[in-house]
Design a protein that fits this description.
There is one protein chain. By secondary structure, the protein is an alpha/beta fold. The chain folds into 2 domains: 148 residues, no CATH class; 110 residues, no CATH class. 44% of the residues lie in helices and 11% in strands. It has 13 helices and 9 strands. The strands form 3 sheets. Strands 1-3-7-6 form a 4-stranded mixed β-sheet, sandwiched between helices. Helix 6 packs antiparallel against helix 10.
């Protein structure tokens, strides 16, 4: 061992002209965490939960931030920047309810291995409101702003709703909030290559031949032919009536991405009973099963669990 050290010293002294003072090893440089945890205001129990999340996944769950922090998450990634958006902080007494809420609409559905590999975003800001002032003037009090449930940009997410209403939120409202979040998360996961889509999914349907229009319940023959080709609705009304992503030739120029988006929506939002009429079409069932099996086999992710969870 000593011989090796002497050789290293000789190499430094003679080959490199000696080691300058600036090159000498000194005390280790301390690398500080970006945020100091625990933050102030929440109970010890709630802060301990946040510390546990940081220790397990490397993610900061924050409830005491500045507007600059919020704007940084918007301008640091691939998402659209929205400098006119702002946040209203929630009261720290609601941190526990907010952590429960986030677990119910997000964390519990994804496997540990996936969350540790980036599925749980680096920075999770918990806020009361995300708001954007409406353009113009003359709005009645309380209607000056438009509100958002969440913002994802870069490696950060801000989730609104940290207030007393969490304690009385209905099951229906929780499902709506979960659906909003999962649509954004799946787009994020795919864009950042945390999830991928197998080529087999795109090999089933014909993306060349343009479907006959219009595709709607009034024109049932067109709609049945559209379903037979393996295409699902991309939206539903409050009473369950389907809306289609294909409305004309322009929509067909992005047929593959539109098709995938419609499947991800149905996979994560529609129950088995709601999907039953569509799965009678062989190509729809084939594509549906391809995605279910792919997520389960490659990521250990049961994508249907959230759709069938009615709380």
């Amino acid at each position: 061992m000593k011989k090796n050290i002497y050789i290293l010293l000789a190499f430094c002294a003679f080959t490199l002209g000696g080691c300058a003072d600036k090159d000498k090893l000194g005390e280790p440089i301390a690398i500080n965490d970006e945020y100091q945890l625990p933050q102030l205001g929440a109970s010890k129990a709630d802060n301990d939960r946040i510390l546990a999340l940081k220790g397990t996944y490397g993610s900061y769950f924050l409830y005491n931030v500045t507007q600059k922090d919020f704007e940084w998450t918007q301008s640091s990634g691939t998402g659209s920047s929205s400098s006119i958006d702002s946040i209203v902080l929630g009261k720290p007494e609601h941190v526990g309810l907010m952590l429960d809420f986030i677990n119910d609409i997000w964390l519990k559905y994804y496997p540990e291995s996936f969350k540790k590999k980036g599925g749980l975003l680096y920075r999770v800001i918990m806020a009361d409101r995300i708001q954007r002032r409406r353009p113009g003037t003359g709005f009645p009090p309380g209607q000056e702003y438009l509100f958002s449930n969440l913002k994802i940009n870069g490696k950060g997410i801000t989730i609104a709703g940290m207030n007393a209403n969490l304690a009385t939120m209905s099951k229906a409202d929780k499902i709506v909030r979960r659906n909003d979040l999962q649509v954004a998360l799946l787009q994020y996961y795919i864009a950042n290559k945390l999830l991928d889509i197998p080529n087999a999914f795109y090999n089933v349907s014909d993306y060349v031949t343009v479907p006959a229009t219009p595709v709607n319940v009034v024109n049932s023959d067109n709609q049945k032919a559209y379903r037979a080709r393996g295409f699902l609705p991309s939206s539903y009304t409050a009473v369950g009536n389907p809306g289609e992503w294909y409305y004309g030739t322009y929509a067909w120029t992005t047929a593959k991405s539109n098709d995938l988006s419609s499947y991800l929506l149905n996979l994560t939002q529609r129950t088995d009973a709601e999907m039953a009429p569509y799965l009678k079409y062989p190509l729809i069932k084939q594509k549906f099963d391809i995605l279910i099996n792919h997520f389960k086999t490659k990521y250990n992710f049961d994508v249907r669990a959230m759709a069938n969870d009615r709380y």
